[in-house]
Specification:
Strand order of the largest sheet: 3-2-4-1-5-6
Number of domains: 1
CATH superfamily: Phosphoglycerate mutase-like
Helix content: 25-40%
Shape: globular
CATH topology: Rossmann fold
Strand content: 15-25%
Order of helices and strands: EHHEHEHHEHEE
Amino acid sequence: MSNAIILLYLARHGTTVLNQKNAFRGNKDVPLSSEGIRDAHQLAEFFKDEPISFIVSSDRQRATQTANILKGSHAVPLETTSVLRALNVGKFSGQQRTPENIKELQQYLDNPDEKIPDGESLSEFRGRIQPAVREAIEIADDSALPGVLVAHSSVVHEASNLILGSHTACLVKPGGVAAIYISNGKLGMQAVYRPFEVSAEELGRADTIS
């Protein structure tokens, strides 16, 4: 990222009990686990000396807890919004990531206009996340300092799809950070803190969703 200007950070919330149980979070409003609290404090350390212009968080507990800890001593506004919630995987929320559940969910992701039972379609999710990411980039660009979005793995994946054309091109662990930057007039995105240890080639789309 030499000669690149960072416009926006996307921080993934810290670990929850559902992460530890290898279950889909989706629309479950679960708090951080003790490990997740540690993740958030490590995030705060990462951002301690980073000049930022704003923080906007998903309104889910796991994200707002992370954002409040991350904010630390930064004298910047912190707002919460339902727009940045994870993909609502409906009936899969809270269920184990079994091969059967992953395969069934993948069918809905492969047909983006088809609504997940009791949830939303991938197209509906894209319709709220992509404009939010674009707006955040514009606001940060106008302020001349990067902003921070605190959200979920599915939001990071959709930002990666928007910027890089691939949902799995930029993956981060709970408590990880990706950055959207501009270099030579072109937008890029990459993990900048605690990148996912597993390669995208080893993962299916449904296997990486929040």
